[in-house]
Write a structure and sequence with these properties.
Elements (H helix, E strand, L loop, with lengths): L15 H18 L1 H15 L15 H13 L6 E5 L6 H21 L1 H15 L1 E14 L9 H10 L10 E13 L4 E3 L10 E9 H15 L13 H6 L3 E9 L4 E6 L7 E3 L15 E2 L17 H19 L5 E2 L7 H8 L14 H6 L7 E2 L3 H25 L3 H4 L8 H11 L1 H28 L2 H8 L6 H24 L12 H8 L3 H15 E5 L9 H28 L4 H12 L9 H16 L9 H54 L5
Antiparallel strand pairs: 1-12, 2-3, 2-9, 4-5, 5-6, 6-7, 7-8, 10-11
Amino acid sequence: MEDEITASESGQRWDTAKVGAHWQQELERAQRYFKSWHDRCVKIEKIYLDQQSDQTSAAKRRFPMLWANTSVMQPAVYARVPQPVVERRFKDAQPVARIASELVERNLAYTGDEADIDSIMRAVRDDFLLCARGTVWLRYEADFEPLDMGVQPSDPAAAHNLSESLPGEIGGAPPEVIADERVCIDYVHWSDFLHSPARRWKDVTWVARRVPMTDEEMEKRFGAEAMASRAAEGTAGNKAASQAERLENEGKTHVWEIWCKSENYTVWIADGSPVALEVSEPPLDLTHFWPCPRPAYGTMSTSSLIPVPDYVYYQQQCDEIDLLTKRINKLTDQLRLKVFYPSGDGAVSPAIEKAMRPENDMVMVPIPEWAAFTDKGGSKAIVTLPIDEVQKVIVACMQARKQLIEDVYQITGISDIVRGDTQASETATAQRIKSQWGSIRIRDRQAELARFARDIIRLAGEIICDQFQPETLMLVSGIRLPSMAEKQQVQMQMQMAAQQAAMRAQQMGQPAPPPPEMPPQLQQMMGQPTIDEVVQLLRNDSIRGFQIEIETDSTIEPDEDAEKQRRMEFVQMVGGFMQQAGAMAQQSPMLVPVMVETLLFAARGFRAGRQLESTLEQVGAQLSQAAAAPKPEPQPSPGEMLKLKTAEVKAGAEQRKAELSVAEAEIEHRATVEQARGEMATQAIDQMRAAQPPYQ
């Protein structure tokens, strides 16, 4: 393929003529590889739809065994829409991973509803049951609109010059933004899908699907130049197997979309054209490269990827059943009353003929020549053809056909309980055992379609993670997350408010007040992860950071009793655990975190507890914080409070009495001291007077 890569002056990397010639050969080789399987599937589809070419009156009398078996198997292998469940790979407390998982899960649910994945899965299921292969194709679509600059210049010439001078524009075109984006899931008919011959799916080097397109669609998709390059090759779409297909594809051209993994490019080429319409790099960067999951395969061998339809294994029995059905119908036609009577007896023969007419349920016929009629034996003159032997042959044919039908049921594995054939004497336990063992043969088919639905959801999830804009993720999911800029703006506003309050306090000569408290709404917003962090996780980790998985039985008919039983078990488990854990938490508060983790570990094992996991984690975190916080002193009872108050009053009275006694003693002491000082002063004065000599 290296000779197909060129570097022309126009910047084109691939030579469309060489690429087209190469891929026409590859497509023809793959068609030869699948030709026997394709022809067999065409015949099986005609039998299923009762569209055989030999539509004679005898050939119409067939037993619709294929349709009956397929109708029984359809709801058994797929019965309801697969529900996407996005889970974290590790069940720990990571708010960013939790929000990212919820965003992707809601976007996947909306994508499935918009793409009508239920009808797609039912079409794949029918191909899977009839032809043993079914597949789909995923693609990403986006709608663009001009970017509103918010400026309306008055001068048109200036506006034109402005649009030409803006950066990032091509050819003067105004910048565009994504207005809407979606993941499309296209059903691919079993005859419109090809891949390279291989033994295993991992060895496949290219896959292709055939798309009928009108000339207008092709010109819009590939341009006028590509249309002119394959002008003579526009009749391939008229080659159809049936008149209905010819009418459906009238005026359309079959175009092959090819994804080549070995060369890492995609090719669009019209069926029968030697020139490729378009050669480009893959529009999606997917983990496994393919825009389609591994097809839902039925019976296959390890030597090739050519499946074997189930009808092949009981086709001979169905042919014998049809042969016996035709024989029974022919013999049934012979179950008629055939009468022989003498002719030429005047009025006797017309009377007998009138009596034996089919439209006469009860008739009275007069016979003029009664003597002649009785002379020839009367009613004994009429002889009927015996039909007992015919009846015995019919019964034998019906018994043989019934045995063949039982053989078909044994081959296909349709159990008695699945067909609704049971006995009134059987107990409920016996019927449940028969149902469990009777469905073993179809469990692989159920698992294969469940795997196929899971792969579709994984591919869609990968495209959503890699391609969707943050606005689309939040709009579709209904989850509003703040951006990093919004959080920074709130922080700046709170800092500015704190600075202004500090400046006002400083001007008034007061101490700086504490920082203002953030409103509850802003606190909740600041506690959430930002959309930038979520998108960064989705872009970098994509599917590897968390696992996208559907429920194990989400594609088959649910067992309501089993679901109720699981929910009751979960409620009983949580109730019993909470009752035991409450008593232990009061005695040993340090064990509360261990109990919370134990409860979460048990709840994650129940599918019914997945919806309560977030609530349990929040409540568990609050309980752990409450247990770690210091306990306040226990409040006394009202009686104890009265005693405490009485003791406090008594203690206060005693204290006041003691203080009064101390004050009185101090007063007495001060009076005694003052009296002593007065007496000492008087004595001193007397002594001084006595010591002075008397005047002469």
